[in-house]
Design a protein that fits this description.
CATH class of the largest domain: Alpha Beta
Shape: globular
Largest sheet: 8 strands, mixed
Helix content: 40-55%
Bound molecules: 2-acetamido-2-deoxy-beta-D-glucopyranose
Strand content: 5-15%
CATH architecture of the largest domain: Alpha-Beta Complex
Mean pLDDT: 84
Radius of gyration: 25 Å
Number of helices: 16
């Protein structure tokens, strides 16, 4: 009896202590926890409002009176926002290459994908690595039988002292490769929206016949063979090539109100507690018709929202386009290095240094034999479950991706 009583007593003591400890932890963390939970609940509630109603449309539109008349003046009012002159340009990039060199008749090539890489003037090495690997147009034509155009979107170097020397290096680089598109705005984080506008305007002017448009950061890896296959399959189904905006989707993301953050947005600039849904700016694809709609939206929207992927969300919201999730477009994270991942991956983030080795590994012809057959499918699913279904958040591909 006595022993039993003591044991119970001890157990209760432990229980009491644990409860106390947990309570302490909760109390210490409560403010943060509370803030996090509440802000997410709020933004999720607002998400439905933001995505369903048109108050974004009305409050971001510039000069609605002008637009309603559709007169020549409105053209002028719209143009002011976006017309930085081109410093380097290639208007014929989407034409058939045989026609540019010597032919007297110019034809539009059947371009599957126009791929814009957002780069910065000083990132010479990253651009070269991309040309040597996933951005190699001739590889795509020869090995995959598709016409893809890869161009780099740039502004001018932010430091006025270094600008002339960087600029002459850029001209040299462009002489050799013919793939830089540069406009006369300062290339800074807060001008990324200008870079987005550049892309959609250039696409509209010079490559409107491309079936798909992609935007990518210059530090990501794109598994172009998988991407081309995915897009080709979409084209084969009539409906799939329309109304498409696909990537890693952020749903109901709240604006960052911390003044010390890079992503800080004031409530004057964006008053609501949630952004419209948008895809991570590191890499996403839109179909040609959506690209045309986004272009139209940039003409009447105020471009002061400097976070470019959010601005894209605003444009899409006013155009009535919503993003679709694809499990193999990564978030901020780097994909696990494994053949069973290479078979499916589309984009992976944070490859400024190792693009070449990942490209070699991911496009190794030996991979195909590994992935065919029932047993190897089973093996790969098991491997992917181990790599992707972790108890902590990795921000690469979701656990669900293991089963596709
Ligand atoms: C765009 O929005 C900003 C911030 O809300 C505002 O200061 C600016 O006047 C607007 N510009 C136009 C052209 O409407
Ligand atoms: C691009 O790919 C082609 C065909 O595979 C290859 O011959 C060429 O060397 C590659 N170019 C670069 C810059 O790596
Ligand atoms: C964006 O570029 C324009 C044109 O060069 C420049 O006047 C402006 O200061 C830049 N904005 C930011 C935030 O860097
Ligand atoms: C947004 O506004 C534009 C022009 O005012 C209009 O053409 C468009 O239909 C609106 N979009 C939505 C989703 O209401």
């Amino acid at each position: 009896m006595f022993m039993n009583f003591r044991r119970i007593h001890k157990c209760q003591c432990v229980q009491l202590l644990t409860t106390g400890l947990v309570l302490c932890v909760v109390m210490v963390c409560w403010e943060q926890l509370d803030h996090h939970v509440v802000s997410h609940m709020r933004s999720y509630t607002y998400r439905y409002l933001v995505n369903s109603y048109d108050f974004i449309n009305t409050s971001f539109a510039i000069n609605p009176l002008h637009l309603q008349h559709g007169d020549a003046n409105s053209e002028f009012a719209m143009g002011r926002v976006t017309n930085y002159p081109y410093l380097i340009n290639h208007p014929n990039k989407c034409m058939r290459s045989s026609d540019i060199h010597g032919g007297d008749r110019k034809g539009k090539d059947d371009v599957l994908l126009l791929l814009f890489v957002k780069s910065s003037p000083e990132n010479f090495e990253r651009r070269q690595a991309i040309r040597d690997t996933w951005g190699n147009e001739s590889y795509i034509r020869l090995k995959l039988g598709e016409s893809v155009r890869v161009v780099f979107a740039l502004g001018v170097h932010p430091d006025a002292q270094q600008r002339p020397s960087v600029q002459s290096k850029l001209l040299e680089e462009d002489q050799a490769n013919g793939d830089l598109i540069q406009q006369d705005f300062v290339d800074t984080f807060h001008n990324l929206t200008q870079k987005l506008i550049l892309q959609f305007h250039w696409g509209h002017l010079y490559c409107a016949h491309a079936h798909f448009f992609m935007t990518a950061d210059d530090d990501i890896f794109v598994h172009v063979p998988n991407l081309v296959k995915y897009l080709r399959d979409l084209l084969a189904t009539q409906a799939g090539a329309r109304d498409l905006w696909v990537g890693h989707v952020h749903r109901g993301a709240p604006p960052n109100r911390r003044k010390d953050s890079k992503y800080y947005v004031s409530s004057e600039l964006y008053p609501w507690p949630a952004y419209p849904d948008y895809t991570a700016g590191a890499g996403y694809v839109v179909s040609g018709d959506v690209a045309a709609k986004i272009y139209q939206a940039t003409l009447f929207l105020n471009s002061s929202m400097y976070i470019d992927d959010v601005f894209m969300g605003i444009c899409a919201n006013t155009a009535g386009v919503s993003p679709q999730e694809h499990v193999y477009f990564s978030g901020e994270g780097k994909a696990p290095y494994h053949p069973c991942i290479y078979n499916h991956m589309i984009t992976s983030h944070g490859h400024a240094k190792d693009v070449r080795s990942v490209w070699r590994a991911a496009t190794d012809p030996g991979l195909h034999s590994l992935s065919s057959g029932f047993t190897s499918e089973l093996y790969c699913t098991a491997v992917r479950v181990m790599l992707l279904c972790r108890p902590y958040y990795q921000n690469t591909y979701p656990c669900m991706a293991a089963f596709t």
